[in-house]
Amino acid sequence: MSTAMNFSNKSFRPRPPDKGSFPLDHFGECKTFKETFMKCLKDNSYDNSMCRLKAKEYLECRMDTQLMAKEPLEKLGFKDLMDKPRQENEVNP
């Protein structure tokens, strides 16, 4: 009887992390967004209120690349930055 364990029978299925978990971006998929956000913070004396749009773009990238769980941006505090719905009486250009 063999006591060796065979791990190749199990398959690993990756899933998005739970809210609040931020795995490393090993492939640099969101590196540009992160660097833009960090530069904005530095340029604005680390006043994050001045960089909310950059933060939103960075989080969108992380959600799009499954580096964090998809979450409505309104729940992440970006309701005021969301596109406003078009009015019915607007004329199409």
Automatic annotation (TrEMBL):
Any one of the GO CC terms: cytoplasm
Residue stretches in coiled coil: none
Major location category of this protein: cytoplasm
Region (Disordered): 1-21
PROSITE patterns: CHCH (PS51808)
Stretch forming the signal peptide: none
Biased composition (Polar residues): 1-11
Annotated localization: Cytoplasm
PANTHER family the record matches: CYTOCHROME C OXIDASE ASSEMBLY PROTEIN COX19
Family: Belongs to the COX19 family.
Name of the featured protein: Cytochrome c oxidase assembly protein COX19
Organism: Umbra pygmaea
